[in-house]
Amino acid sequence: MIMRISNNFIFFTLFLTFTYNAESQTDIGAVKFETLVASSKDWEGHKLPEMRPGQQELTIVRVTIPPGKQMPVHKHPVLNGVYIEKGTLTIVLPGQKETLTLGEGKAFIEVTNKWHYGRNDGKDPVIIVLFYSGPEGEPTTIFKNPDEKLQ
C-alpha cells in the first residue's frame, strides 16, 4: 500500500512537472514547444461551434496558391485551423469589409460555416497547411460553386 501511494505521488509530481501549457512556450531539455494559436473563438471573435457526436476525424491538407490567384468561395462545416508555411495570405469574407492578412509562420483559427476565400496578393506562392477536425466522413470544405476553378 505504501509503495502504491509513493508511485502515484511520483507520477503526479512528474505529471505536474512536464505538463504542457497551451498558453505558453515550454522547453523540456532541448525540445521546445511553442503554441501557434489556441482559442475557443475564430479569427472574427465568434465562439467555435461544439463538436458533433460520433467518431471524429482529423485531416491535414497542404494548399499552394500561386501569385495573384485566389481560392474559390467556400465554407467549412468542421472546425479548422491554418498555418501559413510560406508567403502572405489574405482571407476575405464576401460582403464584409473585414479581412485577415497574415504572413509566414503565423496561424489562425478559421471561420466555420461562413463563405470566404483566401487570396495571394504577393509575387511568390503562398503555402498553407490546414488542420480540419470533424465527424468522420463529413466534408471539410464546401465550394459555393463547385465548378469554379482557382482564379
TrEMBL record:
Boundaries of every Cupin type-2 domain copy: 62-130
Endpoints of the signal sequence: none
The organism's place on the tree of life at top rank: Bacteria
Protein name, as recorded: Cupin domain-containing protein
Organism: Microbulbifer echini
Source organism phylogeny: Bacteria, Pseudomonadati, Pseudomonadota, Gammaproteobacteria, Cellvibrionales
